[in-house]
């Protein structure tokens, strides 16, 4: 019985809200929560619920939003302003929209660009040095590998004179087993 009564009365309230909105050109917002937690709402076509609640807050003097929501709203506004400022600064760094800048601002911009360019050049040289060092190491390893492959018997005798051909043959065989790994390095 309660559910049926709720449904009928809710529909009646919604109908009256629509009528007063259309017939009287009034700003109307209606929000109904059922005992089950389900929400039903109506808002005039020329406004929003937030607008009506803000208008109500101004007229009544009651605070509908708590401090936490206001702090979040202020934080969002601050972040939006910071984002706008950073976008303008990025355009300036690209050389766009610099006509309104004064002499000091242009000097600061030039200094920032020079500092960034120095950092880029330093990093470029670091990469170049590392590449050169790695290339040199690879060339040395390649020379050693070629020498070892061309003269395996001479390399085996470097550790001392070895007369045993079987021992030298075993060293060459061990080296050939390791060849794929040597090329991977």
TrEMBL record:
The keyword Transcription applies. It is found in: Nucleus. Residues 69-156 form the K-box domain. It comes from the Eukaryota. Residues 62-96 form a coiled coil. One of its GO terms (molecular function) is RNA polymerase II transcription regulatory region sequence-specific DNA binding. GO terms for biological process: positive regulation of transcription by RNA polymerase II. Residues 1-46 form the MADS-box domain. One of its GO terms (cellular component) is nucleus. Pfam families: K-box, SRF-TF. Keywords: Coiled coil, DNA-binding, Nucleus, Transcription, Transcription regulation. SUPFAM superfamilies: SRF-like. This is MADS-domain transcription factor.
């Amino acid at each position: 019985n309660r559910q049926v009564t709720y449904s009928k009365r809710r529909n009646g309230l919604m109908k009256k809200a629509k009528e007063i909105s259309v017939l009287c050109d009034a700003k109307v917002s209606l929000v109904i929560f059922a005992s089950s937690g389900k929400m039903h709402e109506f808002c005039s076509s020329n406004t929003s619920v937030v607008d009506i609640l803000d208008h109500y807050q101004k007229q009544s003097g009651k605070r509908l939003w708590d401090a936490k929501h206001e702090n979040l709203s202020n934080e969002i506004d601050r972040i939006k302003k910071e984002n706008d400022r950073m976008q303008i600064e990025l355009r300036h760094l690209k050389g766009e929209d610099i006509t309104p800048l004064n002499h000091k601002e242009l000097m600061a911009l030039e200094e920032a660009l020079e500092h960034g360019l120095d950092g880029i050049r330093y990093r470029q040289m670091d990469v170049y040095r590392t590449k050169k060092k790695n290339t040199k190491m690879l060339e040395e390893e390649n020379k050693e590998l070629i020498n070892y492959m061309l003269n395996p018997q001479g390399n085996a005798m470097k550790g001392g004179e070895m007369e045993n051909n079987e021992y030298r043959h075993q060293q060459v065989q061990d080296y050939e087993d390791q060849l794929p790994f040597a090329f991977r390095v």
